[in-house]
User: Fold this.
Amino acid sequence: MISSIIVSAPSGTGKTTILKEIFKKYPNKFSFSISCTTRPKREGEEHGKDYYFLSQEEFELKMRNDEFLEYEQVYQGLCYGTLKSEIERINKEGKTAVFDVDVKGGKNIKKMLKDNALSIFIAPISIEVLKQRLMNRGTETEESLAKRLERAEMELSYKTSFDKVIINDDLSTAINDFEQLLKSYNVI
Ligand code: ADP
Ligand code: 5GP
Assistant:
């Protein structure tokens, strides 16, 4: 039985947009595993909802205390990690956990959860389209945009490590493909 889904995509592909729509359609079915991060909060983000925003020292303390299922330095100097306690929290709610993590985190979590997890990679049709989406989103500086695009090339090479790949070209098609995929695995 699938009790969690792992969703990875190069930043700017549209993962958040797709998941929001799925969550809206199935409001009591899913719960995000809330990750820890040392990156600064973006406008509108909340501690304990989007992420647990930690200082480098707080993050390192959790590393030493073995509180993470996995963690990665996703971008230079910025750490992201999945807390073991999140799985317990979501299991207690009787919901399907959603791990919104980078490709390496996704591969590691799949290795641990095996057939209990369905891993999904969302891909853009091109790097050029990805750049345009990140620019339109208006959240990146020139430097962070360059970092994300550079990393996207590496991330795309991971797509074969995932159970399924969904292309986000036309948004409504991608949302429908995602929903059909979850249905085919009896997740919804
Ligand atoms: P991610 O969570 O993968 O980093 P977002 O969901 O924030 O990406 O999407 C990045 C930007 O691209 C957002 O501004 C979003 O509205 C837009 N977007 C998402 N999917 C599409 C699509 N299929 N076509 C055009 N724009 C899209
Ligand atoms: P953002 O800064 O755009 O929110 O996220 C940047 C990247 O970090 C995304 O690819 C996101 O999936 C990834 N990420 C978020 N949380 C985690 C986590 O707990 N572990 C790992 N490995 N990656 C994460």
